[in-house]
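Reopening this ticket.

The earlier resolution said the output was attached, but the attachment link was broken on my side. Pasting everything inline this time so it's all in one place.
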Amino acid sequence: MSNLMAGLFLLAVSVPALCQQVTVVTEDFPPYNYEEDGTAKGVSSEVVQAVLDEIDMEAVFHFYPWVRAYRIALNKKDHLIYSIARIPEREDMFHWVGAIAPYNTSLYKLKSRKDIEINSLDDAKPYTIGSSRADVITSYLEDKGGFDLDIVTRDSQNLHRLLLGRVDLIAYDEASLVYKVQQEGLDITLYERVFRLEDLSDDLYMAFGKTSDISLVKKFQDGLRSIKDKGIFDKIRQKYFLQ
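Inline output:
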């Protein structure tokens, strides 16, 4: 009888372990992460999936507006978020798994606006800049101070608002701008990059909120390190021409 009970106990504790699952939250942010036919796509999504495969764990992906995804990851235990910028004001708010993709940010204008010339960040202060709520770019410019920010919920709105003359400049990630312009059915030749924000040109990360189980965080850190050591990480980046 004791052997039977021991066997049942081992079965009971091992089944949940085999079915361990994590909840992943992110936003529509191509080419890093986006949803297509119910599947998470993009360079960052592929890295996250490769880590999940490496540590033999399943996940449920949820795509939300960034503000909601950020709030969920911040307040709910064991919720993974990506692609998130690692900036000083966020440093102590998350457990950082690791870098998953490069990220460059610039200010853009309409090519027809010959009157706008930006050689330094201060040169942008006289102009209205379109940005999105809870975005790292918005936080950065707010902290700097002196900028006229017109903030919306979705960054894709600013592509249209720039064309309509409602803003003079938009702050955008370089890799996603071309993809997003095409997705919105707009003409990429109408936009022109005028200034790169070097302080915001670094890497994007995956992270867990501070209430998350530290053993789960470590498991993901080990998985990410493993796919980098095996060359899987570099192969994914090369597919998207992100060197």
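Reporter confirms the inline version is readable. DSSP finds eight helices and twelve strands in the chain. The CA atoms of residues 107 and 195 lie 5 Å apart.
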